[in-house]
Amino acid sequence: xxxxxxxxxxxLHLAAQTHVPTxxxxxAGTLEVNLIGTTHLIQAIREHAPAARLLFVSSADVYGRVRxxxxxxxxxxxxxxxxxxxxxxxxxxMMCRQAHAAHGLDVVIARPFNHVGPGQRAEFAVSGFxxxxxxxxxxxxxxxxxxxxxxxTRDFSHVLDVCEGYLALxxxxxxxxxxxxxxxxxxxx
Length: 189
Description:
The protein is 42% helix and 15% strand. The chain is an alpha/beta fold.
């Protein structure tokens, strides 16, 4: 109904289940939200806003495991998803490409890498660390910081920079193309 009533010319598709441990615990629910939800959106766009540009926000997690010598990652690298979340995002990308090829849908795909900033849920590493440290400094918790594997690296960007990237892609991205959104710098977790 919303697409029918508003007839938007730009759609930023961020609706997703994004937490990997949740996706592992509930793969069917993750596919329902991330793939089937995207499929319903594409159908609604085709029916009610066929001239709209869709920015589908995927994830760099679709690349899977990457060896250091394979960096930097390029958009033409084949996805190799390793968990239900990344499978759902890779499948969503495929639905978008199919809609572009078969029906001329104006779609651009963004693959953001890790981003951090205010309001991020505590189950994500950096925000969880920050909340724990704040609690320690305020004397609200013991001076212990529980962590997992710190021997991994990630490419972090601030959420506002990622949002600027989304806006740039909505305006200037090439239809049918995929774009990595990242800082280009590895940071050890």
